Please model this.
Amino acid sequence: MNTYVVAYDLSYAGQNYECLTRKLRAYGTYCHLQQSAWLIESSQTAVQVRDNLSACLDGNDRLFVAELSGEAAWTGYDAATSKWIKETA
Model:
């Protein structure tokens, strides 16, 4: 399994995030880091994750998917989120 950072911008105010969040939660192992940033665990490639999530986007939206590997640093997250990152990434 790989751990991916997923970040997105839905360009217009009032966008419906339901499709995207439903697909992200469907990966089963996930952490909702910030408003538009998630960590997910998947056996898919980054391209496959991108393609899966792209079905929820409009042509003017942005999506970034990258494998999380190596060193990471963070601050301001609760203990459960920090534990998830340490154990999964």
